[in-house]
Each structure stands twice: as C-alpha cells, then as structure tokens.
Amino acid sequence: MGIFNSLFGNKEQTREEEKQVPWIPLVTEEQLDEIKEKSKGRTQIIFKHSTTCGISRMVLNMFSKSYDLSGEIDIYFLDLHAYRNVSNAVAAKFQVMHQSPQLLIIKNGETSYHTSHGAITDSDLSELV
After folding, report:
1. Is-contact 119 59, C-beta < 8 A?
2. Please, what are the domains in the chain?
3. pLDDT in single tens digits along all 129 residues of the chain
C-alpha cells in the first residue's frame, strides 16, 4: 500500500491539503448594509454563484483551490438562484451590473473591484485586498 500512496496520493491526505474557503452565506438584503458598514474596517468580498451554470461551477472550484486569504477578509457566498432578490440588491447597492459568476470586493462602503467569469481566477486577491 505504501508505494501506491506515494505514487497516487492518499485520499485522506489530499482532503487535509484542500483549502477551505470560510464562506459566510449571503441570504438577506439586510446583510448588505452590514457588509457595507463592516467594509469600513475590514475588506468584504461577495462571490455570486449560479448553481445551474457549468462555467460558474468551474470558476468556483478554481477559486476555492487557490484561495489563501483566511483571516484577512470576510467572504460571502451568494447562491443567486435561491436568493435572486439579494442578487438584485447587490447590483443596486454596490452599483455593478449583474453577472454570474461574479466577484465583488467592498472597501470603505464601496465596490473597489469587481469581475466575472474566468477573470475571477486571474484576479490576485492578495493585491486587491
């Protein structure tokens, strides 16, 4: 078994090495006011995801694998199909056109950066935060 684990990796070891994004579920419009206020002291990020879109799923997986800002930011996850009203409110409150998948960085009460689709994985969050 030892040689197989060294060649192909151990499943349990792989799970431990996977990075976990500390998602905060974004489910109410009231949370947007909290995000805006909290952004005055700590960077806030919103990740909008479409559960029915293959591209959105691929970008989410790639983002999750490369995520390395634990403890530096608050990061919200929005399932835009389940919470369409919240998605619409994000667009209005933070003055961005709705897209999916979409990443917004909120600082000092305003959107300091936003992008969508494959450009999300090209974004260097460590520089943007």
Report:
1. no
2. 22-121 (3.40.30.10)
3. 454 454 455 555 444 455 689 999 999 999 999 999 999 999 999 999 999 999 999 999 998 898 887 678 999 999 999 999 999 999 999 999 998 999 999 999 999 989 888 878 777 676 777
